[in-house]
């Protein structure tokens, strides 16, 4: 079991390191500029590893530069999702009206059709990176809130929390000093899985045409390939390579999350 956990963590970290290297230093992996034009629709070969697109841009170079924007949106959306979910989940355990309000808020957002809502709001608000990050986070925090709420309820029934209450510590002190530190494993797992979910949601919206065209992500690349006739040109590398990158990046976070999930189960046991 330990070997499986270590293997999953190692593989996840290796994949993530590759994508982080591409995001931070894209120029080190290609000799072409992002907007350097050549002959359009060249097939894959020694000069252009994945060929060129309809405008003559090197597809491999587009993949490398798209890594930065895809990762940025995924990570920032997941961070905001984690903050919102932790805040709402903790407040939902409060007695009386505040707890009832935030519990009701969780139940309302559980029932919302997330993708349809995001499509409608993206059409109204525009397709900038900032709007995408805020919209994805605003409708992705429910799972984190429910996990945090369940764990906080469990912690509130523990003797050390009761002792803090008896000794007169304020609710804010108990939450910050005793409850949040005990949510460490849950928050890491939810963050890693949240990155996966946010990347998939961003890719879906970008493929549907709601991505930021000035900072194209992998989802936007698939949208361009589809619209510009990559199927008719049999430019399958243009169509498949962004999807493969999305899959591998998601797998890297998933493998890392498996390690922390297994660790949490071991601690529980």
Gyration radius, in Å? 22 Å
Low-confidence stretches: none
Number of strands: 0
Shape estimate: elongated
Distance from N terminus to C terminus (CA atoms, Å) equals 14 Å
Total number of domains: 1
The CATH homologous superfamily: MetI-like
CATH class: Mainly Alpha
Order of helices and strands: HHHHHHHHHHHH
Describe this structure in words.
The structure is a single chain. The protein has one domain (2-268): MetI-like (MetI-like fold), CATH 1.10.3720. The chain has helices at residues 2-24, 59-91, 97-111, 114-125, 129-138, 142-156, 159-166, 171-179, 184-207, 218-227, 230-233, 236-268. The model has no long low-confidence stretch (mean pLDDT 90). Helix 2 (59-91) packs parallel to helix 6 (142-156). The protein contains twelve helices and no strands. The chain is mainly alpha-helical and 269 residues long.
Brief overview, please?
This protein has about 270 residues and is an all-alpha fold. It has one domain (about 1-269): Orthogonal Bundle (MetI-like fold), CATH 1.10.3720.10. It has 12 helices and no strands.
């Amino acid at each position: 079991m330990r070997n499986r956990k270590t293997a999953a963590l190692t593989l996840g970290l290796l994949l993530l390191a590759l994508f982080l290297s591409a995001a931070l230093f894209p120029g080190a992996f290609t000799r072409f500029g992002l907007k350097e034009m050549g002959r359009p629709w060249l097939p894959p070969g020694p000069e252009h590893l994945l060929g060129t697109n309809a405008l003559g841009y090197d597809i491999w170079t587009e993949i490398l530069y798209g890594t930065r924007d895809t990762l940025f949106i995924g990570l920032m959306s997941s961070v905001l999702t984690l903050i919102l979910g932790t805040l709402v989940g903790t407040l939902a355990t409060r007695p009386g009206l505040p707890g009832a309000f935030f519990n009701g808020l969780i139940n309302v957002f559980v029932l919302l059709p997330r993708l349809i809502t995001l499509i409608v709001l993206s059409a109204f608000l525009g397709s900038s990176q900032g709007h995408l990050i805020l919209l994805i986070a605003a409708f992705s925090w429910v799972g984190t809130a429910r996990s945090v709420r369940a764990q906080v309820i469990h912690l509130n029934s523990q003797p050390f929390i009761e002792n803090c209450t008896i000794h007169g510590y304020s609710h804010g002190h108990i939450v910050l000093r005793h409850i949040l530190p005990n949510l460490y494993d849950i928050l890491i797992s939810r963050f890693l899985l949240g990155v996966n979910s946010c990347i998939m949601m961003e890719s879906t919206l970008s493929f549907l045409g709601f991505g930021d065209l000035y900072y194209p992500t992998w989802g936007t690349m698939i949208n361009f390939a589809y619209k510009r006739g990559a199927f008719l040109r049999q430019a399958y590398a243009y169509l498949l390579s962004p999807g493969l990158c999305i899959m591998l990046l998601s797998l890297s976070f998933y493998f890392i999350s498996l390690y922390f999930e297994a660790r949490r189960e071991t601690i529980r046991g």
